[in-house]
From TrEMBL:
SUPFAM superfamilies on file: DmpA/ArgJ-like (SSF56266)
Keywords: Acyltransferase, Amino-acid biosynthesis, Arginine biosynthesis, Autocatalytic cleavage, Cytoplasm, Multifunctional enzyme, Transferase
Primary location group: cytoplasm
Protein's cellular compartments: Cytoplasm
Pfam families named in the record: ArgJ (PF01960)
Subunit structure, as described in the record: Heterotetramer of two alpha and two beta chains.
Protein name: Arginine biosynthesis bifunctional protein ArgJ
Catalyses which reaction(s): N(2)-acetyl-L-ornithine + L-glutamate = N-acetyl-L-glutamate + L-ornithine; L-glutamate + acetyl-CoA = N-acetyl-L-glutamate + CoA + H(+)
Record flagged with keyword Acyltransferase: yes
Catalytic site positions: 187
Signal sequence residues: none
């Protein structure tokens, strides 16, 4: 039985990692440049946006992941370095080089990420000054989670410990994301560190599989960002024997990595721009897992469902409509529950107390359960309500 527990920590909690953050003056006052650093080269895995207009750092980071080794991740907020042409690519490479020179690293072992406004060039004088301020010894480890934020209202962190072969392995994650959240590989910026010893190909396969049921199952507004990136670094400093495929150690580590990814994904959904409620949709009884996941995501991504949840309106017809839009099979026998209240049985309306259910829909977490009675597969997706404030935030977001 896997022994794991959540602990209080940050992205630098695993052995052999440190982090730092500084104000490089890209934002008015807040931290806007963050660093994750491993004492030794680490195995690195990553997934990236499928948006065809990808930000300048994306190809650079794909090359880092293809090399299989990373020792540092540098992240700036405020400016996305997307749709910036050859100059943007050059600026990403310069950022990589400056970090490598500062900490005596191989440049190909430095990943570079940016988030913020599209179409603006990075102020390289500020980037260079900010990098010069970062420290490998006395870093502001808790500041990294703040430095990567854009329209987010809260930082998003989670840390777990798991016992593997008698050794304590730590897995820590941090992410940012609030708007432009509708993944098809990964969405937002997400970073995970672990002191586990695991080969890069195995780590990459594990991450790619976990992404499908975690980060890829959240949606806020239907928009996939130009900068979406998830990176995992494993530096092997916990002292555990190397994790091998199809072993108990593999399953234990995968379980905790999946939990970290899922919790981060849910934190993003709950902090969607203008959101007041987290929505969880569970679909069961589908012919296959992919269909179940896509139907769940269609429900949670429906603007009509999202606005009904915002208005505490138990309009189950909007949920049924969303199911019908994407189901590639007949669904004549649906059972539907909202906040635990049965509203549909055998695709036939059931009497329920609308006033009571409306009160339940004012809670912070809304759960919709749909049983399709057409198989044994299941899937879950997470999102948030659609509010007046979402429109206000994005109408005023400067480009």
């Amino acid at each position: 039985m896997t022994k794991f527990k959540a602990i209080k920590g940050n992205i630098a909690s695993p052995k052999g990692f440190t982090a730092d953050a500084t104000h490089a003056e890209m934002k008015f006052q807040k931290l806007d440049l963050g660093l994750i650093l491993s004492e030794v080269p680490a195995a690195v895995a990553g997934v990236f946006t499928t948006n065809k207009v990808a930000a300048a750092p994306i190809e650079l980071d794909k090359a880092v992941v293809a090399g299989g080794v990373a020792q540092a991740i540098i992240v700036n907020s405020a400016i996305a370095n997307a749709v910036t042409g050859d100059e943007g690519v050059s600026n990403a490479k310069t950022t990589q080089r400056l970090v490598a020179e500062k900490f005596d690293l191989n440049p190909s072992h430095v990943a570079v990420c940016s988030t913020g406004v599209i179409g603006k060039q990075l102020p390289m004088d500020k980037i260079a000054l900010g990098i010069s301020k970062l420290s490998a010894e006395n870093g502001h480890t808790n500041g990294f989670a703040e430095a990567i934020l854009t329209t987010d209202l809260v930082t998003k962190e989670v840390t777990y410990e798991v016992e593997i072969a008698g050794k304590t392995v730590t897995v820590a994650g941090v992410c940012k994301g609030s708007g432009m959240i509708h993944p098809n590989m990964a969405t937002m910026l997400g970073f995970i560190t672990t002191d586990a010893k695991i080969a890069q190909p195995l780590l990459q396969n594990m991450l790619s599989e976990i992404i499908e049921t975690t980060f890829n199952q959240i949606t806020v507004d239907g928009d996939t960002s130009t900068n979406d990136t998830v990176l995992v670094m494993a530096n092997g400093q916990a002292g555990n024997p190397e994790i091998l495929a199809d072993t108990e150690d593999y399953q234990a580590f995968k379980t905790v990595l999946a939990i970290v990814c899922q919790e981060l994904a849910k934190k993003i959904a709950a902090d969607g721009e203008g959101a007041t409620k987290l929505i969880e949709v569970n679909v069961t009884g589908a012919p296959d897992d992919l269909s179940a996941r896509m139907i769940a995501k269609q429900i949670v991504g429906s603007s009509l469902v999202k606005t009904a949840i915002f208005g505490a309106d138990p309009n189950w017809g909007r949920v049924i409509s969303a199911i019908g839009q994407v189901a590639a099979f007949d669904v004549p026998d649906i059972e539907l529950e909202i906040q635990g209240d049965l509203v549909l049985l055998h695709s036939t309306p059931v009497d329920f107390d609308q006033a009571e259910l409306s009160e339940k829909l004012k809670e912070k977490v809304i759960v919709i359960d749909a049983e399709l009675n057409n198989g044994t597969a299941s899937g879950t997706a997470w999102g948030c309500d659609l509010t007046y404030q979402y429109v206000e935030i994005n109408a005023l977001y400067h480009s």
